[in-house]
Give the backbone structure.
Amino acid sequence: MFDIDALRLLVTVAETGSFTKAAARLNYTQSAVSRRIATLEQQAGGTLLERLPRGVRLNPAGRTLHRHALEVLDRLSRAERELAVLHAGHGGLLHIGAFATANISLVPTALRTLQDARPDVEVVAVEGPTDTLMARLADGVLDLAIVSDYPSGLPSADGVTTTALCEDELFVALPRGHRLAGAGTIDLRELRDEAWLQNAYGDRPTMLADAFARAAFTPRKIIRIAEWSGKFGYVAAGLGVALVPSLAAWAVPDELVLCRLTDPALRRTVHVALPAVPLPAALKLRDLLRDAVTELSCVMSPTGKAL
């Protein structure tokens, strides 16, 4: 409803008590100040100033609008300062997103280093599937996302660029009492009679479905479980087996073992996704994620322990 410049003018007139002094401070003519204040009074629905023999002062309506004008101008000033700091790479909010298993070790490792190196950066983190994260990046909600091509490929999004971060091997999780638990490396065909735990399957192409096609069999049963804790629980109970990326190996319970599969295509690529004009703090986090990959190696032993 109110023009920001007009509110700033009202505050200056109140401070100086004079149209003439306010005009001099803001580099306006006195007539311009009079016109702007008159327009502001029309918008406010009545007079805001008492005209005195020498100068002006706020009336009750003017004091009310003046109070709100100070709050608005202060908020805008703080926003301007925060944005300047943010775009200069010296701090501010950084909104990031990641898929679930990236949040087990990869993202926390990088964020711990970022917190030590850049305590002025406040990270706001969310978790979600890759397609949702890419859409949020395109909408400007996120400043960086960690995404992957598992289980159904890497989606594209307008104005979003992706850079490969690492390859993440996919193991099969078995209960410790399983007949193949000590095999180390398993051919997928040896698991043809198992029920498989998978979030997405059948409604669109998936990496697991492609692997079954290469192995020339159809799984006996697919159990649709989304959360990793649920998958681990089902496997531990002997109700099925599941693909587990190496990034999730840190969270695998002791009741399970991870075995490698002979199919070399059963691996996903983890990517860092950024908007077309990334924030400096986002670029810093991207570099720290690369360092975290080196630290974690992104490769796990069949027992689920880091090499």
User: Anything to note?
Assistant: Confidence is low (pLDDT under 50) at residues 298-307. The CA atoms of residues 21 and 287 lie 53 Å apart. Residues 60-87 form the longest helix (28 residues).
